[in-house]
């Protein structure tokens, strides 16, 4: 299997990405027709050292080392993510995400969505590997808003309906973007390592079903065989069910469309920022995103602590995605029980 961090050049806008939209014009021209707020996010031309806390600037004035231990010590830590990444307030309206599980795939998805669609995401200002830690970092604009899971039960029915309508429009937009392969994608870089505007490359997928990025896969069958191999390696008390139940069910799922859909991978209210007027401000945490089979978004929404997921509890997920995938969910929950 190829190294999942290696890449194959791919111009997403012209080569392999298909959309049922007639065109993908810039976000400011499409927001109202897609059901999102009319005003686009503000854009920054470049990152300035003045945006960094004074204690975090290098004395030689050259910048760099954005995610170095010295700089991280000067930032305000905003939280630790389940996938062992950390999020920091890195200056005026800037957020830095770094850690051993931060990947270029997340940066690639965010950049593509910001540049080419109306899906509301933070603007990526810089990404790369910090030479001192060896970890990837993503430097993003900070988006004003509150996590939906913290305010959902405080909203009246009319505001909830407004929020759900926006989430549905966002995910229908997202799922209209297709690729023939199951893959993530990363920004293509020039010989100096700088991203080439508008150019992306296929890469492995970073779903947490796997311990490390896997793929790309040329079909759903390739993904399922990789998942089966991963399950067989896990062993444990539940593995006795693997050959008898899980694997036969895994390969007997109903057929699905051959084109993969762009998937967030963690449809949860904690990853959705909303403003006080009920406007959806941004979707966060694209660490498991990529092109997956059509049922993957539905299945993954039921992972984790379902009791605390208000979108699952209040039956929002099937409405957002237009249908249920209960047979696929049952099989994947069995596989999840073996892995976790």
Automatic annotation (TrEMBL):
Domain of life of the organism encoding this protein: Eukaryota
Residue segments, region Disordered: 20-67
Transmembrane segments: none
Aminoglycoside phosphotransferase domain location: 91-307
Protein's name in the database: Aminoglycoside phosphotransferase domain-containing protein
Gene: 20347388
């Amino acid at each position: 299997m190829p190294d999942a961090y290696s890449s194959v050049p791919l111009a997403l806008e012209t080569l392999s990405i298909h959309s049922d939209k007639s065109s993908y014009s810039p976000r400011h021209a499409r927001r109202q027709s897609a059901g999102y707020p009319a005003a686009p996010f503000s854009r920054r031309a470049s990152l300035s050292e003045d945006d960094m806390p004074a204690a975090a600037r290098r004395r030689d004035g050259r910048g760099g080392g954005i995610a170095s231990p010295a700089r991280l010590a000067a930032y305000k830590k905003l939280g630790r993510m389940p996938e062992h990444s950390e999020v920091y307030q890195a200056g005026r309206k800037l957020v830095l995400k770094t850690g051993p599980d931060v990947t270029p795939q997340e940066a690639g998805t965010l950049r593509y969505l910001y540049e080419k669609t109306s899906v509301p995401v933070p603007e990526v200002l810089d990404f790369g590997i910090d030479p001192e830690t060896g970890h990837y970092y993503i430097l993003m604009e900070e988006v004003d808003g509150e996590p939906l899971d913290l305010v959902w039960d405080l909203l009246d029915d009319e505001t909830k309906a407004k929020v759900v309508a926006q989430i549905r429009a966002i995910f229908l937009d997202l799922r209209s973007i297709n690729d023939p392969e199951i893959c993530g994608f990363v920004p293509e870089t020039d010989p100096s390592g700088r991203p080439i505007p508008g150019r992306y490359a296929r890469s492995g997928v970073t779903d947490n079903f796997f311990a490390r990025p896997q793929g790309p896969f040329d079909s759903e069958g390739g993904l399922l065989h990789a998942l089966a191999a991963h399950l067989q390696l896990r062993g444990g008390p539940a593995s006795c069910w693997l050959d008898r139940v899980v694997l036969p069910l895994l390969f007997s799922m109903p057929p699905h469309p051959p084109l993969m859909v762009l998937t967030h991978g963690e449809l949860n209210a904690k990853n959705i920022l909303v403003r006080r007027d009920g406007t959806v401000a941004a979707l966060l945490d694209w660490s498991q995103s990529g092109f997956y089979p059509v049922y993957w978004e539905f299945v993954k929404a039921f992972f984790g602590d379902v009791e605390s997921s208000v979108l699952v509890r209040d039956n929002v997920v099937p409405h957002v995605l237009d249908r249920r995938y209960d047979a696929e969910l049952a099989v994947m929950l069995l596989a999840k029980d073996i892995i976790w």
